[in-house]
Design goal:
Radius of gyration: 17 Å
Number of helices: 5
Distance between the termini: 38 Å
Structural class: alpha/beta
Helix content: 25-40%
Number of strands: 6
Shape: globular
CATH architecture of the domain at 14-66 and 99-130: Alpha-Beta Complex
CATH topology of the domain at 14-66 and 99-130: Ribosomal Protein L13p, Chain: A
CATH class of the domain at 14-66 and 99-130: Alpha Beta
Strand order of the largest sheet: 5-2-1-6
Largest sheet: 4 strands, parallel
């Protein structure tokens, strides 16, 4: 009888991928990034085991959305106090914190538990074309 393969901590290797968000659609980009972060692109993928890779996203301020999302899409924050709701439009969020737009889109596609929070720490997002991860030699990620 064959046994199911379960990767051990010493057998895991993590690669680094570089994604240029210039002109990329936000949702399609986020789903591809989430797939790589979870490790679903690897044949050794096992649910509940962190087999995913690191992803570095550059030029996140140039991400593209379709339709009227720049005006219609809202981000909600609540302080927990009465009247503490703050609403930010996508256009304003891209102007002030473009990294949070991609981070929230990717977080929505990850498991919402300790495993998902651990995975999200492997996502590095930068507004411009420069990033401090040259030593890891990230290879470009082919977005299909």
């Amino acid at each position: 009888m064959k046994k199911t393969y379960y990767p051990k901590a010493g057998e895991l290797t993590y690669d680094w991928y570089l994604v240029d968000a210039n002109g990329q659609n936000l949702g399609r980009l986020a789903s591809r990034i989430a797939k790589v972060l979870m490790g679903k692109h690897k044949p050794t993928f096992t649910p509940g085991v962190d087999t995913g890779d690191f992803v570095v996203v550059v030029n996140c301020e140039r991400v593209v959305v379709t339709g009227n999302k720049l005006e219609d899409k809202n981000y909600y924050n609540h302080s927990g106090y009465p009247g503490g709701m703050k609403v930010t439009k996508l256009r304003d969020m891209l102007a002030t914190h473009p990294d949070r737009v991609i981070e929230r889109a990717v977080w929505g596609m990850l498991p919402h538990n300790k495993y998902g929070r651990k995975i999200l720490k492997k996502l590095k997002i930068y507004a411009g074309p420069d990033h401090p991860h040259e030593a890891q030699q990230p290879e470009p990620l082919a977005l299909d």
